[in-house]
Design brief:
Layout (H helix, E strand, L loop, with lengths): L9 H12 L4 H8 L3 H10 L18 H11 L10 H8 L3 H9 L1
Helix pairs in contact: 1-3
Amino acid sequence: MPTGKRLFTDEEVQQLREEYEAGATLQQLVDKYGSHRGTLSRIIERSGGTMRTRGSKYPAPPESFETLKAKILRILPNATFCKDDAGQIIIHTGLKTATVEVLTNL
């Protein structure tokens, strides 16, 4: 269980929001950053992010799949978004399988 206060740099706030918008769950971010889920959700919202409903498979709007693809290409520059790339995209981005399936079928 996270304890104490943690200050986030501007870069960490941006990274946190991008990870969440790319499909990371709050629990995954709690485990990574060691802060309470309420704290992280407030940081995401205050930095301009939109929280997903619980159990949502897809990134929060207004993030488009084209924006999501651009973020993936920053992580995996050679990704072609074919079904053969799906496993690597999931492993390297932490996106949910359902989201990657949509991306590889666009």
